[in-house]
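User: Some background: our group keeps a shared notebook of sequences we're curious about, and every so often someone picks one and asks for a predicted structure to add to the entry. Today it's my turn. The entry only has the sequence so far, pasted here. Could you supply the structure so I can complete it?
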Amino acid sequence: MGFTTRQIHAGVTPDPQTGSILTPIYQTTTYVQPSVDEYLSKGYSYSRSGNPTVRALELKLNDLEGGVDCVCFGTGMAAVQGVMLAFLSAGDHAIISDVAYGGTYRLCTKVLSRFGVEFTFADTAKPDEVTAAVRDNTRLILTETPANPTMKCSDIAAISAIAQKASAVHAVDNTFLTPYYQRPLELGADVSIHSTTKYMDGHNATVGGAVISKTTEQSEAVRFIQNSTGSIMSPQVAWLTLQGCKTLSIRMDHQSANAMAVAEYLEAHPKVEQVRYPGLKSFPQHELARRQASGFGAMAWFEVKGGLDAGKRLMDNIELWSLAENLGSVESLITHPVTMTHADVEKAERDRVGIIDGLIRLSVGLEDVEDLIAALDQALEQV
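Assistant: Of course. Here's the predicted structure to add to the notebook entry:
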């Protein structure tokens, strides 16, 4: 079956008791057992360890990514943490994309480093740098591609080969492109991570995360951490995300088309210093983005001539685009990463990896693209 068919039907069946076409919200703490000898005969005992609504979402996401199983978490960062705790111990070393979500950087440098885990933030867009960063104790390589917020892309197949040679797990944060456009496991990665808060939900309604693994052993390691730490997704969140998934491909295609039109408009505007969107031929890694994904997504960034001050004026005065954290929703969002999503990354590190003070991140939504461009045009006139 095709992707759009599977995003609607995978993992869910009509409720056997009522015929409800939607999976019920199993809002329960515990599950009554038939007898001691038949403990777990129905598959569930306590909702921290499993819930039928959450399980339906896990089955759907696993089907879409092509893994062996999926484990859902309470947030995207809980999913990233779950992967790190599953595959890293004190004394181990991990390689992380030098451009990554600020929360990932914070988790590595401010939390896990306190427990004897070592991290190298390498330019994963350059496989030679990743190879050079590998140590005897390297157990995990975490690649974010396209990277948040610079959109830098990494060659998933090349990094996967390096990880395999080092006997390390290669995890890819696939949030920006989703399995509709990019399928890391098919390109050699071991694990695909999602903040389901973003495109999977698509409606600014929930926070959640998911980890899809290539092998049963890997998935069991992740689920052990999820259960042990209690970082679970609620049934209400799972139910809402199940509904969001049904329109994923339709939303992604429309939002990506909008993003291309917006990027082309910005690239031609005399007050814009630079634009980065993987679909533009001017994007430094356009060929890689085109080769390893079937679409370019709906995330972009630009810098206004005049730098930070001009960018602030634009963001403070723009209409229609909402100044807010998050991305991937039907509403178009505009974000200042240095102040918002990447504020915990030290300035020297931001400067090193290209997260400049004037960078304006766009999450392009489903509005009429003419209205989105008109709003940008009006805002640019004021800077």
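Suggested note for the entry: The chain has 14 helices and twelve strands. The mean pLDDT is 96.
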